[in-house]
Amino acid sequence: MKLLPAAQVKPNEVLAQPIYSDNGQVLLQAGVTLTERLLSRLNNKGITYIYVEDKRTEDIEVTSPLNPQTRVEAMQTIKEQFQVAAEVPNKNPMFNRDVSPAWNQAFGNVVEKVMEDLQNSEEALSLLSDAFAYDSYIFTHSLNVTMYTLRLAMAHGYNRQELRAIGMGAILHDIGKMQLKPEVLHKTGKLDDHEFEHIKKHPEMGFLMLKDQPNISLLTAHCAYQHHERLNGSGYPRGIAEEAIHPYAKILAVADVFDAVTSNRVYRKAMLPHEGMEILYAGVGELFDDRLVDTFSRIIALYPNGMMVTLTDGREAVVVSQNGEMTSRPNVRVLTDEASRSLDTPYDLNLLENPSILIQASAPVG
Question: Same domain for 44 and 86?
Fold first, then answer.
């Protein structure tokens, strides 16, 4: 199979991986021939990348970091409990008493299951393999950031109790957005200055919502409060600098930005993983902790299995598998020669063993 941007998939291609709704229902089964009408529906549902069948790459394996049931339960919990936050004003004196036990148990269960799935997965993390249609960016983003945050924290040796607190902070980091004006939060066009200032209130709103809940850690509340702060003091809402930012929030900042730029939005196309990493690298030392960014680059599949790429010598290839933490040097299957002529017999090439050959760009191959 090969991975293509949904916009570049042509009619009559055959779907290689099923596509699900966020409640776990199969929208399209693997093996379905894609028509213009089906491709249009997938685009409307926000599907950005699709695996399609290709005889030259039919042996490529793609695995999701989460068990499908874990993902379905996580999304249901996030949607249900975030809706509570939208409907119950945090100034209500009964708010904390009413929701705290439910949130602690519901989100705690999700974090535990996500941790277990991630600990059982040795592959570099890639979410492009997960073809799920969602009805709200904030729900998807909350789960994705939780996965990225936990995997990064695991790589830095945090213990289980710490991971749970970090995971709770990640899954609830944007809970304050549920208190924003819906017309601003869901605006499809560019925000004006006044609207952006309103959006920038969500970290403090989330902090105020979480800080007094007896069963929610104060560190979890500070993750919501500080995830937009930056090392050089240029972040918000308080503009605090490196030493004042909690380590958990520094981890969350990396995960939050990466998922934001690699997710499809109405006003912007999603970047590919290696492009998202370039954004993080550009902010090293000024915005993001250099050790965290370096670690993140080694746990993320910069070039996911099935992705079509162009090598520096002009040959076109597809990523077959990863090489551990050397995520920029995967194993590839070469499909063309240097002049882009298709090969009768494609062959595999280990980029780790060929240091003079680099991936120049991601490039869909016909």
Answer: no
Residue 311 reports pLDDT greater than 90: yes
Q: Identify which has the larger pLDDT, 152 or 185.
A: 152
Please write the tens of the pLDDT for every residue from 269-296.
778 899 999 999 999 999 999 999 999 9
Structural domains counted in the chain: 3
| Beta carbons within 10 angstroms of residue 358's beta carbon | 13
Whether residue 116 is contained in a domain is answered as yes
Active-site entry in 2, 113, 177, 250: 177
Total-model pTM: 0.90
Same domain, 335 and 204: no
Query: Which pLDDT band holds residue 144 (cuts at 50, 70, 90)?
Result: very high
Domain range for 338 = 307-362
Q: Indicate if 41 and 171 belong to the same structural domain.
A: no
Structure tokens at 187: 């605006």
Q: Is 26 part of any domain? A: yes
Mark whether 177 is an active-site residue. yes
Q: How large a percentage of the chain has pLDDT more than 70?
A: 91
Around 81, how many Cα atoms within 13 Å sit in the side-chain half-sphere?
A: 26
Contact 3, 308 (CB under 8 A): yes
Residue type, 64: S
Give domain status of residue 97, yes or no: yes
Q: What is the pLDDT of residue 366?
A: 41
133 and 207: one domain?
Answer: yes
What residues does 308 pair with on adjacent strands? 318
The strand pairing partners of 28, in sequence order, are 19
